[in-house]
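Inputs:
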Amino acid sequence: MDKIVEITGLSKHYKGFSLKNISFSLERGYIMGFIGPNGAGKSTTIKLMMNLVKKDGGQIKLFGLDHEKDEIAVKERIGFVYDENCFYDELTVEEMKNFIRPFYRRWDEAAFKRYVREFGLPLNKQIKRLSKGMKMKFALAAALSHHAELLIMDEPTSGLDPLVRNELLDILRTLMEDGNTSVFFSTHITSDLDKIADYITLIHEGEILLSTTKEELLEEYCIVKGGKNLDLSACRELFIGLEESRYGIAGLARNKGDVIKRLGGSAVIERPTLEDILLFFTSRSDSHVSSH
Amino acid sequence: MNFILSNSANEPIYLQIVKQVKEQIIKGELSEGEALPSIRNLAKELKISVITAKRAYDELEKEGFIITIGGKGSFVAPINKEMLRENRIKRIEEKLSEALAEAKLIGLTLEELQEMMKLLDEE
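Outputs:
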């Protein structure tokens, strides 16, 4: 397997927050969604991958290379799309492009022109006058114009309207067709990933709770709904989280097959969405089964 | 090829694809030797993940409906349509005899059962 991202035992300690010994990997040609609530450690992980902050322990290998020792070689092959503006506000799109172009040996001017046309980017407009969606598209055009093999996107869809978000997903889909590019996509808008992601990595309070294919995730877990009198004693240990209201209960359980067998027809069992999984896994309320 | 995929259905997306390809092969809408889109192209067109598309093709291949030739792509496998039809008929017979047995348990007559079928068909 051609591993594009390989993170092993990565840790970083801040006052009040630690990234604890995290590991995951991503192959060439696939999209990984990196999800978790705000403050879970998504941006810290990405900053470590980009070597913008120094790790305290563990290893980050990108394209099989060490991300610190081979930093320049690695960064040539990465396209970085950040949710905040990482360009100079006063420059125009064209000026900014001319500024970043010399940093990349593989810069492809024809490709850039093509993306400018495709995305409708105004070359002569100052960056600060671009809409949020346009800024994201410019970052994406810049990333794609140096033929990045790995796109690292930190919350690229936050603050964008559904139309622009959909455009971004379409661009990513087209990009995936040749099987050469991998995408690492952090977001808390899980609906963006419901369809497009191949792999999902869930981070919470600095720890990876799961990292697997989306297919397995959505088949392994299920939402269970039932009346207040639903007897869960046969499978309580399978529940990740449970919510009780005046009129019934709803919860997320693992091992769907077992749940169906044990609860039979007494409950409604549904396929979860990524949002369900995110919410039940990270819910801070006292609705957790373990705290019962 | 035509696909109608439902996100609200309880059936996983890959299975929906498998079923619909099979149906189109059995109906003759896809003929033997016909080239199927590549996994990555299918994923893009159907707006699904590459892994989902791959899983559908793997399943179709396992069941003998398509063959994948490395570097060339996937094609509709030669299938014996008569045999397929007979297999299906056998499956329907099995299901019907199951229904018949259930009906007997509660004393439903054959006429009532036929009436039920008619009503279901009209739905």
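Remarks. The interface with chain A takes residues 7, 10, 12, 14, 40-41, 43-44, 47-52, 55 of chain B (CB under 8 Å). Helices of chain B lie at 13-26, 39-46, 50-62, 81-105, 110-122.
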